[in-house]
Amino acid sequence: MDEIIKILQTNNYVTVDYLAKELDFSPSSIRRDLTLLEKQGRVKRSYGGVEITKSGKNVPFKFRQHQFNKEKTSIAKAAAELVHDGDTIFLDHSSTVQHMANFLLKKKNLRVVTSNLTLAMYLNERGVTVYTVCGKIVETPGVVVGFHLDKSLQQFNIDAAFFSARGLSADGFCVHNYELTALTVRHICDNSNKSVLLCTGNKFDANNPFKSVSLEKIDYFITDLPVSEEIKNNFKNTNYIEAKRSIE
After folding, report:
1. pTM for this structure?
2. Can you name the residues that pair with 15 across neighbouring β-strands?
C-alpha cells in the first residue's frame, strides 16, 4: 500500500488500471488495497480511480479527464445548448469543456478556437472548422497557456468562450494552481462577447493560490449543484444554470 501512496503523492489522482500496470498487480488486488486505504482516510475513491486526500492538489490532465464524468457530461450538455449555428466559440483546455465536443458536432457552420490540441484534432477530424491559439504547451496531451494567447484571441470575434477553473473561492473568484492558467482565463474573458464558466460542485469553496476573474465578469455559470444564495446575491448579473445529471 505504501507504493500506492507514493504514486499518488506524485500524481494525486490515478486510475485503477494505471496502478495495476505500474505495480504489476491485478486490478482486484489494487481495489482491495484501495478499500483499506479509504477506510484509513488516506485516499478517496471515485469511479475507476482514486485520489489522495489533500487540498489544493494538482491532478494531471490525463487522469483529470476521467474524474466526475457524469457531472462533467451534464454540465457540458447544458453548455452546448448556449451555442448557436454559425457561432465562433472558444473552448479552453479543461477536461470539463472537453466533454462538450460530441454535443457540438450537430451545430452548423461552427468555428472553434481552442487551447486544447487534442480537442482541436478531434473536432477537425469530424468536419468542424478549428483554430488553435499560440502559447506554451504545459501538459500532455497538449494544453496551451501563456502570454501569447491574448494576441491570438484578438484575431477573432468570439461569440462565447467556455472555460473552467481548478475551483471557485468562497468570495466568488475562479482560482487556479498556476499563474499562467489564471492569466489565460483573464485573456479569455477580455476577448469574448460572452463568457461561460463550467465547474463541478466539488470545486466550490476552493483555496488554490492564483485568482483570475470573479463571477462579476462571467455571463453564465453552469454547475451540477445548487449555488449558494450568498453568491447569487453578490453577483446578480450572472446567469446560473444547474445541470441535471441523466438517470441511467
Report:
1. 0.74
2. 49
